[in-house]
Amino acid sequence: MRRFLSALWAKLSNRPLALCDSGDVDGITSAALFLRKYSNGIVVLAAPSEVNRSWWIKRLSWTFVADLPCPGKVLIRADHHRTNKPCAKVEFYDPEAPCSALMAMKALGLENDTVANGLVKVAIETDTANITSKEAENLDLAVRFASYPEKIYIVRNLAINGLQALSNAKIRNLVERGYRAKKLMLEIADKIPIKEIINIYSPIDLGISYRQLTIELQHRGAKMVNVLLRLSRRTFRYYCGADKNSPYDCTQVATKLGGGGHKYASGAQYKSPLLNPGWGVEAFINVLKAYLNIDRLEVLELSRNSIRVITY
Q: Where does the signal sequence lie (predicted)?
């Protein structure tokens, strides 16, 4: 409701309206670039799955969309996902670009803006899973665990202050929260044996970044990591990461589960039928078996205190 009312207010007050990905630094920085260009603009954040199923997102006309599937009525869109089909009147779309924020900077005419370039630099680091700067690490940790109002707060501060926003006391607290979650993620990663392909099922949310877990396991030697998180009785979230020098293609799995993304990083969110809540796990297992062309699949089931191996 908060997002719908924000979008409605933008329409009633004739202000520029943007829709950007809520899930990562790339989407957040793209939103900040929009507000840097249009200080009177209003930003709505959403996940790709929400764009695909939300009636009001599809009904509205958007000034700018970034890092998301095209909802239909869009003036300008900036994106780099192969699985997102262009549809805007003006497309800044390049599937070879390292992040959507780079395309957003071009779309908004901010190439000569020093602050904008700083934001795009960290977006490139985070979206290519090659974080080398403290600024990129801190912003990534702040965004991963922020609530919706906290993400909007980050967007507005980045738009005005650029990376200097990381010195803001409230954002520093979000970074510290992220570091605590990262510590827990590393403890879980230490318990997982490294193989070429690692498949994980988490029946409860352990309070970590599961995308961060896929990246960590890849850094330790895995070539493909598939993670299924149960968000609720019927709702599941899939994360996939694959090494760029491997033959694996995450989109081949993610698209079968209703999602998309990149060859080496994709995801999906989907629901089980009302009368068969366990179908979500079955779908994950069956799609992976078909993609990998195997009859038996080994899955690590995570709990708060242990990891057990289940063969399907």
A: none
Q: Which residues in the chain show pLDDT less than 50? A: none
- The DSSP line for 7-62 is HHHHHHTT--EEEEESSSHHHHHHHHHHHHH-TT-EEEEE-HHHHHH-HHHHHSEE
Q: Give the chain's domains with CATH numbers.
A: 2-176 (3.90.1640), 191-311 (3.10.310.40)
CA angle (2 as vertex; 158, 108 as ends), nearest 5: 35
Alpha carbon 158 to chain centroid, angstroms: 18
Task: Give CA–CA dist 225/56, Å, rounded.
Answer: 34
pTM: 0.86
Residues β-bridged to residue 260: 267
Decide: helix, strand or coil at residue 295.
Answer: coil
136 within 8 A of 122, measured Cβ to Cβ: yes
Amino acid at the residue 187:
E
Q: pLDDT digits over 277-298, tens only?
A: 889 999 999 999 999 999 999 9
| Helix, strand, coil distribution of the chain in percent, nearest 5 | 45, 20, 35
